[in-house]
Amino acid sequence: MAHARVLGAGGDPMTDDVYAGGHAPPPGWLHDPSTAQTRWWDGSRWTDHVLPPQPGYGAVFGTDPRLGRTLTSKNGPAKASLILILVQLLGGLTVIAIGLAAGPQVLQYLWLFSILSLLGFLMTIAAFVLAIVGTGIAVRRPTRKREAVFALVLTSLAVSWLIARAAASIATYGAI
To answer: Under 8 Å CB-to-CB from 40, ≥6 apart: which residues?
Structure first.
């Protein structure tokens, strides 16, 4: 029986068909040296499930034939954070446009702008928390990290802007 070699193990040549510790690897997608293919190792033997050739080295993610499903790469919190930021940006631009169009009559709607400002603050905090959660998910799962990092950078900038704006207001108008 041929023994498996874990892809990306690095540094351990696994010579003489002996594994470190003398145990067979756990079930998973492994490199079968006898066929030079990536095949499913069920923990005791090779199955007939084969993956197409993969460029490079490292872990291989795919469908576990025992479960019949593909590993997910979705990151809902990161996407939700980006959507909140987009909604907040579009809403802010709309409020500015309405304020400019209203001219001097804008003063009668200050109460509405206060409510929208509070809503924007809450959306920024929610987007920041979702970005942190999305980044945690991206680190733990085999997902693309681009969305989570982008959301975290954007929300960090937004939170920094809120802090700077609050500091400027306190400096100008005194303690709240």
So the answer is: 27, 28, 29, 30, 46, 47, 49, 50, 64, 65
